[in-house]
Design goal:
CATH class of the largest domain: Alpha Beta
CATH topology of the largest domain: Quinone Oxidoreductase, Chain A, domain 1
Number of helices: 10
Helix content: 25-40%
Number of strands: 15
Largest sheet: 7 strands, mixed
CATH architecture of the largest domain: Alpha-Beta Complex
Length: 329
């Protein structure tokens, strides 16, 4: 490993937050018992917030953003890992309070790392990334609730984004009839190619929700919150469930108790950041088994480290399709 490496650093002073691609040394690395040569990272919505300072995601300065990375262990004081091991990381405050993946080198707590599953490359792992891993956590929640392909249609909001794209690809392979919600009519062919059976416009979901509407969906995966989630809840069939994992629309939830006490609807909150290791490993194993990796190629594109700031702006603007992989080395 070189004595120096490139990394983005976010600093903050009285004039606000600043981001720069700079050169660091191993002395700049944060505490941890495993050092990783980072090969790939990815752009997630939270990374967009962190890079632009649009929300107070970063809570320690200076800090390297990037909530995902995959690469090769170069040094380890953790008994679980040895030099040469292939690993990935999602969350655990990395990119928020601990320096993350937009760097050629990372040092982290080995208890945060997941061994790269057999058959998945570092690039593929980041094409999945936190967004795809979160999608799998949502699917597991719906399955654990008892929803299966015979239960009825499953709705996916934010369908052309990272979570939505991976969710559609996995659900369709599992045999579900998937209905995709998007505000981008130009993405119809793309969503159909991933396995969506029907595409509907998001505009009606942006309007104020009725306490109860027509029962349409056995289950749903929602990335939006706000009126979107309220409308989704009002349309879930009796005994159905929604897995909520985002706030792209709003952090609020302007709804009533009606779906819960009159239809027995369940709302599952999906946290990918601090999920226990057993759940992470289950999710990644299911991804290895249930994701069509040829579809993963169609829903992902690759950029280099210099292109991260522009991609961060684009993901917040809602103009990025699917997943954006960052080639680090």
């Amino acid at each position: 490993m070189s004595d120096t490496f490139r990394a983005y650093q976010i600093t903050k002073d009285e004039d606000g937050q600043k981001v720069a691609l700079t050169t660091l040394t191993e002395h700049d690395l944060m505490d941890g018992d495993v050092t990783v040569k980072v090969e790939y990272s990815a752009i997630n919505y939270k990374d967009g917030l962190a890079m632009t300072g649009s929300a107070p995601v970063v809570r320690r300065f200076p800090l390297t953003p990037g909530i995902d990375f995959a690469g090769t262990v170069t040094a380890s004081e953790n008994s679980t890992f040895a030099a040469g091991d292939k690993v990935l990381l999602n969350g655990f405050g990395v990119g928020e309070v601990h320096s993350g993946g937009f760097s050629e080198v990372a040092r982290v707590d080995g208890n945060w790392l997941v061994p790269l599953p057999d058959g998945i490359t570092a690039r593929q792992a980041m094409a999945v990334g936190t967004a795809g891993y979160t999608a799998m956590l949502c699917i597991l929640a719906l399955e654990n609730h008892g929803i299966n392909p015979e239960s009825g249609d499953v709705l996916v909001t934010g369908a052309a984004g990272g979570v939505g794209s991976v969710a559609i690809a996995i659900l369709s392979k599992l045999g579900y009839r998937v209905v995709a919600v998007t505000g981008r009519s130009s993405e119809r062919d793309y969503l159909t190619s991933l396995g969506a059976s029907e595409i509907i416009d998001r505009q009606p979901f942006s309007e104020k929700a009725r306490p109860l509407a027509k029962e349409l969906w056995a289950g749903a995966i929602d990335v939006a919150g706000g009126n979107t989630l309220a409308n989704v809840l009002s349309q879930i069939t009796y005994g159905g469930a929604v897995a909520a994992c985002g706030l792209a629309d709003s952090m609020s939830l302007p709804t009533s108790v009606a779906p819960f006490i009159l239809r027995g609807v369940a709302l599952y909150g999906i946290d990918s950041v601090m999920a226990p290791m057993t759940k992470r490993q289950q999710a990644w194993q299911r991804i290895a088994e249930d994701l069509d990796f040829s579809k993963l190629e169609t829903l992902s594109n690759e950029i280099n480290l210099e292109e991260v700031p522009a991609a961060a702006e684009a993901i917040l603007a809602g103009t990025i399709r699917g997943r954006t992989v960052v080639k680090i080395i």
